[in-house]
């Protein structure tokens, strides 16, 4: 993979403007390895958010569980750094920024406990995922406090985006099935 490489992690640009895959660069020895999963200095060098006021986890019991597509409206827009700490997910982001060269495009990534990839998601993106294994856990670094009045989303099956999910939906919240289709640009 190409991208910006440091001695502690690799930043791989995605097809969507401002979104990055972050891959740790493990240092191996007889015990196993040590790897840095976040570094203010390395994120700052690329102009990425370094302040994360919330760290959250989600647990999904069933393979095929779908969560998304979520975002917070301005002025409470949030940057997220997402990783899968147990199991595996198909993580999907949609660029909803009207002034972005990649507006209304989506991209999916496989994040697993084994590959240890993290996904950096800028403000103005919708985010969601589907679990690929039972008993999957996902970790989030979030740059803004949760603001219920700004919580929003778009439908996971919005025909405007045509997201392809790898599995039939086994579980989804009533809230996620009630999001409207996208009315933006």
In short:
The protein is mainly β and 185 residues long. Helices cover 6% and strands 41% of the residues. The chain contains two helices and 14 strands, in the order E-E-E-E-E-H-E-E-E-E-E-E-E-E-E-H.
Structural overview:
By secondary structure, this protein is mostly beta strands. 6% of the residues lie in helices and 41% in strands. It has helices spanning 40-45, 174-178, and strands at residues 4-5, 9-13, 20-24, 27-29, 32-34, 54-60, 66-72, 80-86, 88-95, 106-112, 118-121, 125-131, 136-142, 151-153. Strands 1-2-3-11-8-13-6 form a 7-stranded antiparallel beta sheet, with no helix packed on it. A 5-stranded antiparallel beta sheet has the order 10-9-12-7-14, with no helix packed on it. The protein has a two-stranded antiparallel ribbon with strand order 4-5. A hairpin with a 3-residue loop joins strand 1 and strand 2. The model has no long low-confidence stretch (mean pLDDT 95).
